[in-house]
Amino acid sequence: MADRSTHAPASPGRRRLLAMMGGLAVGVLSLRPDRVEARLDATQLRRSMADAYGQPGLDVLDEWFALLDRLAGAGLDRQLREVNRFFNRRVRWLDDSLIWRQDDYWATPLETLGRGAGDCEDYSIAKYITLQQLGIPTDRLRMIYVRARIGRSQITQAHMVLGYYATPDAEPLILDNLVPSITPARDRTDLDPLFSFNSSGLWAGGASHSRADPIARLSRWRRVLDRMRRQGFIQGG
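The structure assignment produced for this chain is given below.
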């Protein structure tokens, strides 16, 4: 993401952080994004990947299929850990302006794997869809838009992570491309959450200083869902 400010304000406090990340004291907007069904058409996915990225794309798609096969029926901890590691290692971070010649493009998992590069939204979306394919319910997964304080200078940067929630009101575990390990939200003192969403709804907090527009972000999410359907990730829904 390209949205940056000079220096971060003081931390808003751990209670607000955990509340917003965990879904407590947060308004659920009436807007409901399109639902995602955790189904795929492997033949169509292979056709889409071959058309767009050729044999190198098919090779990495087969790696993704192998990941799904290997983790089918595995324990939750292993599924979260290996999905997080797969994308953090397999995808190189690059800005959208370099990958897509656009300021803010949200890629499908097929596009991210085919390019072998992505930014924070692309990592989060790819992990979200992969965990859905492994049978983790949508209400346990939420993409969280945050401001991340980077380095000793504490410069802030717009960022997205994926949260796993044992229950809707639980403190989430955070899957992030910036930090290799999966950590509870309470340990991510560098993150100030702004809003979160999944395929069923949008949770918005009161961060009035943010320039992030949840509704605008959801329009990008819908476009990603439309492309995923065409590519073979989603049937019905």
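Interim note for the steering committee: The chain has one domain: 14-231. The chain has seven helices and nine strands.
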